[in-house]
């Protein structure tokens, strides 16, 4: 659990570095602080790809360090060998996860009365970069980087550390409690005087929770 708690200062440092880089890039691009705080502002690709890459490297890097220092090494700890049966297990798990996410998403949408399904998506950064060369970078980070880094951190280090101390159920819950909140959509907060979660954000989190539960 000490290795999990180390994520707090690591995340703080990574966040500070990302903010510094965003500030530097904003000054180069001539974007003001007011523009950055405006949800309607379309950010340049560099201001999305570079901080995201730094974040994912930290999510991959810390489990790697822990595995080298305290485990059997990444090859053994991460199940680095591949068997043909793994392909079937992966596809089967993906189908179950997508079905569960779709079912929970539809049920939650009905409960909260969501009218626009697009409000429950967090893929705006991909469409924002359409036509930009940075699109290839964000596609790589979304399709390859995020799943790889998130599995190692949330279903790897965090789940196993919590499960080792308090059991498998606690490990699954712990991984969900850290995995779900990081998925935030544009417009996820309603700001009409009293900050509150939007219907779209609630549905997105419910969908992500179902996905994370199956993967865990």
Structural account:
With 216 residues, the chain is mainly alpha-helical. The protein has helices at residues 2-5, 7-29, 33-37, 46-70, 74-77, 84-112, 124-128, 134-166, 168-179, 199-215, and strands at 189-190, 196-197. A two-stranded antiparallel ribbon has the order 1-2. β1 (189-190) and β2 (196-197) form a beta hairpin. α2 (7-29) runs antiparallel to α4, α4 runs parallel beside α8 (134-166) and α8 (134-166) packs antiparallel against α9. It is globular, with a radius of gyration of 19 Å. The protein starts with a helix and ends with a helix. The mean pLDDT is 88.
Write down the Rg: 19 Å
Largest sheet: spatial strand order: 1-2
Please bin the fraction of helical residues: over 70%
**Helix count, DSSP H or I runs of 4 or more residues:** 10
Strand content: under 5%
- State the shape: globular
Secondary structure tally: strands: 2
* Broad structural category: mainly alpha
- H and E string: HHHHHHHHHEEH
Major β-sheet annotation:
2 strands, antiparallel
User: Which residues form runs of ≥5 with pLDDT under 50?
Assistant: none
Span from first to last CA?
A: 18 Å
Mean pLDDT: 88
Compact summary:
The protein is mainly alpha-helical. Helices cover 73% and strands 2% of the residues.
Features:
single chain, 216 residues, mainly alpha, two-stranded antiparallel ribbon, 10 helices, 73% helix
